[in-house]
Structure formats: C-alpha cells, structure tokens
UniProtKB/TrEMBL annotation, chains A, B:
One of the GO biological process terms: L-histidine biosynthetic process
Enzyme class (EC, first level): transferase
PANTHER family in UniProt: HISTIDINOL-PHOSPHATE AMINOTRANSFERASE, HISTIDINOL-PHOSPHATE AMINOTRANSFERASE 2
Keywords: Amino-acid biosynthesis, Aminotransferase, Histidine biosynthesis, Pyridoxal phosphate, Transferase
Homology family: Belongs to the class-II pyridoxal-phosphate-dependent aminotransferase family.
Pathway: Amino-acid biosynthesis; L-histidine biosynthesis; L-histidine from 5-phospho-alpha-D-ribose 1-diphosphate: step 7/9
Originating organism: Polycladomyces abyssicola
Cofactor: pyridoxal 5'-phosphate
Stated name of the protein: histidinol-phosphate transaminase
Catalytic activity: L-histidinol phosphate + 2-oxoglutarate = 3-(imidazol-4-yl)-2-oxopropyl phosphate + L-glutamate
CDD domains registered for this protein in UniProt: AAT_like
Leader peptide range in chain numbering: none
EC number, UniProt record: 2.6.1.9
C-alpha cells in the first residue's frame, strides 16, 4: 500500500506539538507515584452544592438523551440572574470551549491578539491554533497592566484583548472601575474577552456590572471553580446578540453534557453554598499568607481560590513543585518569566492545607 | 458610546445562520406541547449498562476534578479491544466533536470534500464552518454509492470523503469488503472519515477489520448509541499516529466530562449489555417493518437502531412528522430529496413501539 502523509491544512502543519497543561493523571503515570493531594489545577476542594449533586444524580436517568442543544433552561435562569436577555448568552463545555469559540469567530491567520505575557495558556493555545498573532504585555508587579494592554491593542490593531479578572496565574485583580476604563479606551475594532472564571472569589469592588449588549465585551463565567463542577465541563459567555449569533453559526450545538446542564441549573438555586465556599477559601488564603511569610516568602494578594507565592526565583519554584510531586502533592507554577519565580497553590480544605503546610515546610528546610 | 459591529472573520461573516438539528426540547417550546415519546434522535431507549450507571454515580464524587486530558485509561482499554496502539486513538465529546476536529485538521477555505447528498448534517455543518467546498453524490436506492463517491473524490481532488456505515439517515449499510474496496480506490490525497456510530447494530459482514496505522482512514465510534450514553457526550476516533498527533495540536484537551470518561470505561466491561440491546433493537426493527407494510409503506432495511420508512412522498412524510408531534411523539425525517420521502424512527422499547404504532395508524388513517 502507498503510504501518503495525510494532507493537513497549512496551519496545522505549522503548529508546534504542545499542550496547554499536563494533567495530574499524566504526572502520576510519569512518576509512578500516586497523587494524594490535588492543589494544582484550582479545582474546588469544597465540592458541589448538595442541590447540584442531587440534580446530577437524577439526571443520570436521562443520560441516554442528548442535552438540549439550545440550553434554554440554563440560559433563561442566567439571563434572569444577570439582567440580560437569553439571546446574549451562550453555554459551552467550560471556558476553554468558549475561548476556542471566541477565537474562531474573531481570529483568522495573521490577526493580532493582545494579552499579558504569562496569561492563561489555553487562550494562547487557541489563538495560535487559528493562526492568530499573539502580542504580549508584561505584567506589572504581578498585575495585568491595563493601560499597556490597551496601548498595545491600539498599536497592533488587535481584534481581541484577553484579560482574566481576577487573574490566573497570579490571583491579582483590578477594580470594576479600572476595567470599565479599559473598555472605554478599547480601540473600535477590538473586542475584550473578560475571563471571570474566579469572579465569585473577588471583592464587590471588582464586580463590573454586566451590560449584555456591549458589542466589544465578552464576559466568560464557569461552573468549574466556586461551583465545584470542573469535571462536568460547563460555563457560559455573555455578549451582544450579534456575537452570540455568530457563535451559533459554528459552535458544537450538542456539545454540552446533559448531566452538567442539570447540575449547573441546580447550582444557581444554591447561592448560600457558593457564599460558604468563598468564605472557606478566604480563610484558607489567610493561612497560606501566614504560611508563606513563615517560610520567608511572599503570598501575592489573591481574589481567586488559589494563591501565587513568590519564592524568589524560578529554579527554587521548580524545585518546590518537583519535590512536592515526589511527596504526592500536585501544585503548579507559571510557565514564563518573571511569574515563574512563584508557585501556584489551590486553597484546599483545612486538613489539606495542613498536609500542604507540613510538606512545604519540609521542602523549604531542605532547599535552604 | 460608539456602536461598532464586532470584527468577525471573513468566513464567519459569510456563513448562514443554520443549525444542524432542532432539539426536541425546542419543539416542545415552539408547540407548547410536551413530548411524551422521544424517537427522533436515535437515542437509545434501552438505557446504559448497570456497570456504567454505577461508575457514573461513583464518579459524581469527583465532579470537582477535571477529567484526565489524555483520557489514558479509556484509550488503553480501547486500544486493547481494537488491537491498535493508544497513540492511534483520540477521545472526544461525541462524534460531532471529532468530526469538527477532523474537518479543522484537513479543511481550509476552498478545500473540496465529498459526501452523499443527504448525509449527516453535522458533518456538513463543520465543513461549511471551516470554509470547505462540499461536493455531493446522490444516494443510489437508499444506499451510499461507493463507486460514485470515490469517482467524485478523484474528480474534485477531495481531501476528505465522509461515509457513515451503517448509514444515517437511511439505516442502510455496505459490507466490509465493499468499504475495503473503497479504501483501496481512494485517491492518494483523500482521507476517508468512516463514521461507525451505529456499527454495533450491523451484521458481522459489515465490520471492517481495524487497521490503526492506515494514513487515509479515520474510524469514528461513539458511546451515544448502543451504549446509551448520548447525554454524556463521549466518543473516539482511530487513525494513524500522525493524524492523532495533528488532532492533539488543536483539540480541546480538557473537553471531555469526567463522569462520561468513567461511564464509557465501565461500559466496555459489559459487552453482554450491548449484545442484549442489539437483540432487542433487532426485534423492534422487525415490528417496525411489519407495521410499515401494514400501513402500505416500506421499511428500508436497517443496520442501525432506527428505521427509515419510505412513505412515498415528502409532503406525506412532513405531514406524518408534524401530526405525530402534535400527539407528543418526536420523530425526524431526512432534509433533502429524494430521502425526504421517508420518516426516520428510532427503535424504542416494546411499550414505546406500541404507542408509536397506534399513533402512526391514526395518522395514516387520517391522511388517506
């Protein structure tokens, strides 16, 4: 038989073989060592609302049925909560899916896109995957540099500007007023993707009012963090109807898991649960800050469910991540300088924080 | 505030606002009438394996964790079953997701793609969504015309040829020998997407041996049909390692639901369940054939979990679908001529078949 190379597109041929993140399961396979503590992917250590769990259990009875491709019940509930129209909402299999959709809708080969140097790798993966040209702006003291981002967007005529607020991987945040000013200053052909995966953990001053019909803003939210449903893969975006209609032209209409739909809808009926999670996380963050100080490092103030701890240099950060992994503890660190002089640790439950603190102390003693 | 239209890509601007399928939930919303019998989307009426259900129930405890982005356990099990290497397998959120991935990998604007006129709308949706040029070959007596498909692929220099075997929406099938001949005859730059969503329902003679390293064939399988997990959104593709590696450059790595992963893996340990489903469906198909004959119509022989019934003309088919919907019964019909002179009915459980038969008899009496 003739062996012919499959005729991939030009773009695919040129792409590097990288993945945004190595999963903890792969680390287990690589090291042969089971992970006993998962604090590396900012998965919630506080579970899901009992209402959501019960709804998902019930929904298992209907697992043979495709989910509603219009996600109508969930969009209706979200529209009510956010004071927007359901035509301004799209549901996806998590923010990763929605980022791909947004990139596909706005980015063709050569299109300039602006973000911070060290921002969410999966966003960058999608931009590269559709041939976009990434332009980076350095963080300023662990924070996204809003003025420089807009300046860069103007300079390169960017079609997309990506900002996570609160930020990942630093945990820092900007006030709603600052973000509003950034939106005002956007060049006319530039759309802001405002990734608010961690917004539930942010102070009230960081909550920008939602304007569903703004043509230049796409808000992204998820059930993966405060709602504790990362494994279910469900999130949403709010944008003007014209943008949502464009998404509908290409999105995977039957892509969302039916059980996830049921769980997300039920979650929304349990705001107390989310409030309790946020309180518990806030308590944990204080502990992490004290722990970092005790070890001679500095916790970066965080408005998320994780804390980035500045340990001084990248080699030390790498050593800590590797040593913890050998002890069965999974954390991560940012991939690029200068953020990579930090480790990023998810806020766990009390017993998990204790296990982490003990392990981290051992590692710190060893590397001194 | 200045209202600027968002700067969509050229491709997005040109795309029509269509969706591949209207979900039954949307029909309920449109008609205000609840659907009491879902026999339109070829969802399994026979549920999931008890092992899968139990695995999914247990996996709910870990819903806060992302699924393994490498899907290693499932790929390992599938590699063993199919006698291929796990590097030759990719997992996706159902075949729809994998079709999008394959199209994205092989199709850029203007690239010719060949399929049958009236084949799976979601495949066509993805080809159009990436700017591909669809070339159609008419069905021949309700069957894909394999020789004409290859002929057309050669004529237009197609990069992809899509074939569902067994076929949807007709239910017809070709022998493995016929498909092997088609593969032999593929022009060198053309890749065959062999969609085997319904293969479990096909006779042994239709099961083409799997050759994992064939550079021109992508096999697609799903847990949505015989395994009864449509709502979980999980399926897989088998292709040569080079193609799978290309998929890895752009796929949504953390896109698959963790509970679906657990359910799919457990399903594989229960081949008896699938065998029982297939037997029950075969019994149901015989009933449908007798029912069609009684009503003066003809059931097209089917190797799937549904039956296409030739009712003579498109207006009659439309009338039947609409009238059944008014009675709370959801079925579908093909969208294009000449297939649209048929209705497509999923094989349900015995009591559901009885309900359908009664309703269909009433409708038939009315339209005579």
């Amino acid at each position: 038989m003739k062996r012919v190379h499959p005729p991939f597109t030009q773009l695919i041929k040129q792409l590097p073989a990288t993945v945004p993140f190595v999963p903890p399961e792969a680390l287990e396979r690589q090291t042969g060592q089971p992970i006993r503590l998962r604090l590396g992917a900012n998965e919630s250590d506080f579970g899901v609302s009992p209402l959501a769990k019960e709804a998902m259990r019930r929904a298992l009875k209907e697992v043979s049925w495709y989910g509603d491709s219009e996600n109508d019940a969930l969009r209706t509930a979200l529209a009510h909560i956010h004071g927007v129209r359901k035509e301004e909402i799209v549901i996806g299999s998590g923010i990763d899916d929605l980022l791909e959709l947004a990139v596909r809708t706005f980015v063709e080969p050569g299109v300039p896109v602006v973000t911070s140097l060290g921002s969410y790798p999966t966003f960058q993966f999608h931009v590269t995957g559709f041939g976009g040209q990434l332009h980076f702006v350095p963080y300023c003291e662990w924070k996204n540099d809003l003025e420089a981002l807009v300046e860069k967007a103007r300079e390169v005529d960017a079609r997309l500007l990506y900002l996570a607020n609160p930020d990942n991987p630093t945990g820092t945040w900007h006030s709603a007023d600052d973000v509003a000013r950034l939106i005002e200053a956007l060049p006319p052909r530039c759309v802001l993707i405002l990734d608010e995966a961690y917004i539930e953990f942010a102070p009230p001053s960081a909550h920008l009012p939602i304007q569903g019909d703004h043509p230049q803003v796409i808000r992204m939210r998820t059930f993966s963090k405060a709602y504790g449903m990362a494994g279910a893969r469900i999130g949403y975006a709010i944008a003007c109807e014209e943008t949502i209609s464009a998404f509908d032209k290409v999105r995977l209409h039957f892509g969302v898991n039916r059980i996830a739909q049921a769980g997300a809808l039920a979650s929304l009926q349990d705001p107390d649960f989310v409030r309790d999670v946020v309180n518990a996380v806030n308590e944990g963050k204080k502990e992490y800050e004290a722990m970092a100080e005790e070890l001679g490092w500095r916790a970066i103030p965080s408005a998320t469910n994780f804390v980035a701890i500045d340990v001084g240099d990248a080699d030390r950060a790498r050593r800590i991540v590797d040593d913890l992994l050998k002890m069965g503890i999974f954390i991560r660190m940012p991939g690029v300088s200068p953020l990579n002089r930090s480790i990023r640790v998810t806020v766990g439950k009390e017993e998990h924080r204790k296990q982490l603190a003990e392990a981290l102390k051992k590692v710190a003693d060893r590397i001194r």
